[in-house]
């Protein structure tokens, strides 16, 4: 892993892939929480609202801390925050495996949330540092790792937790051990990279934005639009990944395993969309990809609750692919809006996504308890209409690379 490559604005693919794998492991650990929802509802008798609160605590704690970690790391990079974050997640997962009460579950997800909050901004920074002139691709590889980890949640639920119970999640602790070792190596590269930049101040990479010069007011408006997009996308995908399996079981009489396979397919195609979205944005522009992720899935989102089961699977594939095609692109777009605050923007966008997912989980859980599964799913299906604000984002130019 060459330190000089980054200084020459060339991508460093081994680092890109390594941080993507670490992201996969981190988010696999986080995904154990929603994977346990059917088990916790069945065995501990938790209500949908209580399940929503668990998700809220996990994601909101992470959401609140991520911009703070990003802001601090912009001023003073923290290479070893990466393995420390995963160590915290390890402790949280261990407590979750052993938890026999609702309150211990909440404590365990605090450790998981802290680990996630520390990991994401610094992980995104490593991805950016290794990107060279392939920012979209690098962020895609990084986010594909995370989304792949999240996509494992329904499989963990169906084929591990449903078979071995709550203690079956201990298998994921082995992955965490590998992740800690990997992040220690990445942290050492990170330190060498910082030293290389200090010793080559004149050659230090200048962050060039693909956006035109914008006033502070224009940047603020653009960030507001971007956060609206993230809100609608996160709220909708939280509905699908955390609670739609209950709709599949109630409305279509699917069993848990089959329902979780449907959710896995949605998330797997979301991973595919995330991967191609970043590299596509390097070719056709960030805004164009974000608009594609709005126009493409909208009619399918609106019609999904009313479709027969064989159409549902097709719609989930289309929605998963298209709505997630802008996932990594929104992070890069925010970083290019404020190119001097890479960590802060990564923390803001990913943290806000976590936060909106957290609020969405509580609201949807409450609605499920109060008005029923079918009505709730129908209400949430109209949320993607908010994504049309993407048309008002400032237009970026496509970067020309040699």
Automatic annotation (TrEMBL):
GO terms for cellular component: plasma membrane. Keywords: Membrane, Transmembrane, Transmembrane helix, Transport. Residues 15-398 form the Major facilitator superfamily (MFS) profile domain. Its main location: membrane. It is found in: Cell membrane. The chain crosses the membrane at residues 45-65, 77-96, 102-120, 167-191, 219-236, 256-277, 289-307, 313-334, 346-367, 373-393. This is MFS transporter. It comes from Lysinibacillus halotolerans.
């Amino acid at each position: 892993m060459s330190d000089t490559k980054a200084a020459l604005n060339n991508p460093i693919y081994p680092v890109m892939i390594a941080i993507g794998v670490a992201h996969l492991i981190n988010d696999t650990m986080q995904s154990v929480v929603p994977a346990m929802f059917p088990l916790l509802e069945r065995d501990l008798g938790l209500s949908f609202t209580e399940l929503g609160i668990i998700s809220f605590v996990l994601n909101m704690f992470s959401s609140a801390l991520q911009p703070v970690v990003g802001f601090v790391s912009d001023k003073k990079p923290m290479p070893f925050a990466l393995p420390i974050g995963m160590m915290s997640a390890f402790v949280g997962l261990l407590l979750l495996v052993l938890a026999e009460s609702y309150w211990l579950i909440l404590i365990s997800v605090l450790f998981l949330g802290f680990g996630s909050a520390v990991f994401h901004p610094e992980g995104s920074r490593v991805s950016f540092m290794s990107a060279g002139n392939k920012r979209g691709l690098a962020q895609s590889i990084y986010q594909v790792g995370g989304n792949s980890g999240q996509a494992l949640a329904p499989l963990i639920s169906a084929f591990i937790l449903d078979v071995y119970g709550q203690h079956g999640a201990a298998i994921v602790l082995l992955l965490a051990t590998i992740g800690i070792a990997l992040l220690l190596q990445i942290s050492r590269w990170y330190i060498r990279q910082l030293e290389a930049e200090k010793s080559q101040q004149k050659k230090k990479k200048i962050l060039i934005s693909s956006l035109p010069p914008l006033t502070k007011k224009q940047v603020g408006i653009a960030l507001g639009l971007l956060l609206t997009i993230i809100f609608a996308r996160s709220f909708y995908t939280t509905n699908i990944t955390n609670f739609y399996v209950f709709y599949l079981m109630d409305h279509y009489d699917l069993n848990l395993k089959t329902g979780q396979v449907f959710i896995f397919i949605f998330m797997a195609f979301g991973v595919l969309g995330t991967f191609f979205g970043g590299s596509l944005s390097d070719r056709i522009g960030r805004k164009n990809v974000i608009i594609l992720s709005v126009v493409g899935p909208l009619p399918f989102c609106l019609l999904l609750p009313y479709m027969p089961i064989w159409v549902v699977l097709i719609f989930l594939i289309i929605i998963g692919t298209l709505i997630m095609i802008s996932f990594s692109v929104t992070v890069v777009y925010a970083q290019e809006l404020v190119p001097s605050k890479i960590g802060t923007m990564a923390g803001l966008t990913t943290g806000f996504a976590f936060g909106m997912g957290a609020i969405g989980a509580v609201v949807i859980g409450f609605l499920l308890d109060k008005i029923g599964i079918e009505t709730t799913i129908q209400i949430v299906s109209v949320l993607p209409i908010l994504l049309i604000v993407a048309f008002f984002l400032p237009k970026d130019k496509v970067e020309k690379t040699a």
